[in-house]
Amino acid sequence: MLWVVRWTDADGNDTAAVFEAGSSAEAHYMAARRGIAVVVVEEATDADVKIAEKAGRIWRYTPQSRHTCFGKPVGRFQLACFMVCGLLTSFVLANARAVDSHGNVGVISKVRQLLH
């Protein structure tokens, strides 16, 4: 889980950093180890994460997935399977529309007839 730690720096500016930790107490401890005088620790929002990434004040310990599908991380093999399924679905749909309403045979049906 991502936690945002907020504090005030020596110049009086409000500052925040995002830590990946199991609990708010762990995020508080991680900030204290880095010399941050913690004011508040709360769950990080998407906006907090974006701001911390821009400022370079985000500490994550699990690598980010390169590929996602429907918001979930997927591996290369799973991504390839999804792509193959998409291509097969488009082929099946194109084949289903091979004969139009006038009875004319489409290109895919002609190719299938030539192969048989």
Main sheet strand line-up = 3-1-2-4
Quickly give the structural class. Answer: alpha+beta
Number of strands: 6
Percentage of helical residues?
A: 40-55%
Distance between the termini: 58 Å
Mean pLDDT across all amino acids: 85
In N-to-C order, the SSE pattern is: EEHEHEEEHH
Q: Main β-sheet: number of strands, strand sense, barrel status?
A: 4 strands, mixed
What are the key terms here?
116 residues; four-stranded mixed sheet; 4 helices; 22% strand; single chain; alpha+beta; rod-shaped
Structural summary, described in words:
The chain is of the alpha+beta class and 116 residues long. The chain has 2 domains: 2-59, no CATH class; 67-115, no CATH class. 43% of the residues lie in helices and 22% in strands. It contains 4 helices and 6 strands. The strands form 2 sheets. Strands 3-1-2-4 form a 4-stranded mixed β-sheet. A two-stranded antiparallel ribbon has the order 5-6. A hairpin with a 2-residue loop joins strand 5 and strand 6 (72-74).
Write the layout of secondary structure elements.
Layout: E1 2-8, E2 14-20, H1 24-33, E3 40-43, H2 46-55, E4 58-59, E5 67-69, E6 72-74, H3 76-96, H4 107-115
Parallel strand pairs: 2-4
Antiparallel strand pairs: 1-2, 1-3, 5-6
